[in-house]
Amino acid sequence: MNKLTNILNNNKCLKLICGAGNENLKEIEKLAYVYSKAGFNMIDISAKIEVINAAKKGIKQAGKEDNVLICISVGMQEDVHLSKAVINKQKCTNCSSCINICPQGAIYIEDAKVQINEKNCIGCIKCVDKCPYEAIITEHKYKTPYGMLLPLISEDIDCVEFHCTSSDKQAILDAYSRIKSIYNEVLSICLDRSKLGDDELIELIKTMRLKEDFMILQADGKPMSGGKDDYKSTLQAVAFGELIRNSGLNVFLILSGGTNSKTTKLAKECNVDIDGVALGSYARKLVKDYISADDFFENEELQRLAVNKAEELALCLKEYF
Fold first, then answer.
1. How would residue 230 be classed by pLDDT, with cut points 50, 70 and 90?
2. What CA–CA distances, in Å, run from 252 to 36, 90, 196, 274?
3. Which residues make Cβ contacts (< 8 Å) with residue 238, sequence separation at least 6?
4. Best exposed site among 16, 44, 146, 153 by fewest CB in 10 Å?
5. 115 has which bridge partners?
6. CA-CA distance, 247 to 245, in Å (whole number)?
7. Maximum distance among all alpha carbons in the chain?
């Protein structure tokens, strides 16, 4: 906990989100390496032992074992981060319109048919929205937050993030209590505004805050909406952060959901005091062309270019903390 409180109190938190559903081990290792090297101080990953090990491997190769923390994500059944795209074979015409829209390269053609690599899919639903034949749906690969976390308690993790997206407040509180029954370290609460109204969200946070000496709240403006580097994309994250600050809640506040290089600048211009920013889609997209090479770890030039891009992002964000 000491390292995490030091980051939040002094250095501010720069978190890379690999994706709660991302199980592409090579990509996670490369992302962890690049962003650890670039000065990010937390890596957010799926709650699976093999994913944890891949992230740790990347951090170690960057020489940042003492500086970069591991956060694992668990969530409610309604949470989009833990869903996977599935093709309805009866409706699919193999038109391929979904392939280029996928930010993870999870969709491909094999034997003249569209296929989805489940391990790469992060549930962003861009393919669902794009398909003209309504041939793609999402399925939740659900385990309870308690069930996801239980096998990992003995692992060396620094933080657990609980994604609370649900319309059922009592179900959230029950899941929260179950998590706390086995995990007494730092818990980050990630909330968005898709299921509950603002007053309900504030009431929920206050209820959980009463049970915590130390709380990180991640305000997810618009989940998995990143990719563009403009103020409009990050506006909802800053607006949600402002709602939290105006409520008077004493929490460490991290912004996510549409975050990009403009997030900290917009937060400062809006007088929203934040303790960190978590970047997913935009950060992954920024280095995608470099880390997609099979020989990335043998190619020093690719490593240099990727790290430079990530460092530019880190410096831009830190300027306005």
1. very high
2. 22, 48, 21, 7
3. 221, 255, 263, 266, 267, 270, 272
4. 153
5. 108
6. 5
7. 57
Tokens of 193: 């505004």
**Is 282:226 a contact under the CB 8 Å cutoff?**
yes
User: Could you tell me if 183 and 219 are in contact, meaning their C-beta atoms sit under 8 angstroms apart?
Assistant: no
Write down the pLDDT at residue 20. Answer: 83
Say if residue 184 is exposed, middle or buried (CB neighbours under 10 Å; 0-12, 13-18, 19+). Answer: exposed
Which pLDDT score, from 0 to 100, does residue 306 have? 98
> Residue 71: helix, strand or coil by DSSP?
strand
DSSP H helices in 131-183: 145-149, 169-182
The structure tokens listed for 189 are 């609460």
Q: What is the DSSP letter of 227?
A: -
pLDDT at 142: 61
C-alpha dihedral sign at 73, 225, 68, 320: negative
Across 219-245, average pLDDT? 92
CA quadruple 65, 145, 174, 76: dihedral sign: positive
Residue pointed to by tokens 């709380």: 215
pLDDT higher than 70, residue 314: yes
What's the chain's average pLDDT? 91
The burial class, CB within 10 Å (0-12 / 13-18 / 19+), for 109 is exposed
What residue ranges in the chain does DSSP mark as E strands?
A: 13-17, 42-46, 69-75, 83-87, 107-110, 113-116, 136-140, 159-163, 187-191, 216-220, 252-256, 276-279
Q: Is 250 exposed, middle or buried (0-12, 13-18, 19+ CB in 10 A)?
A: exposed
**pLDDT at 226 > cutoff 70:** yes
What would the pLDDT profile of 50-70 be if each residue is shown by its tens digit? Answer: 999 999 999 999 999 999 999
Residue with the two structure tokens 């990180």: 216
Instruction: Record the tokens describing residue 181, joined without a space.
Output: 């029954």
Distance CA 209, CA 22 (A): 29
Residue 39, pLDDT above cutoff 90: yes
Q: Does pLDDT of 270 surpass 90?
A: yes
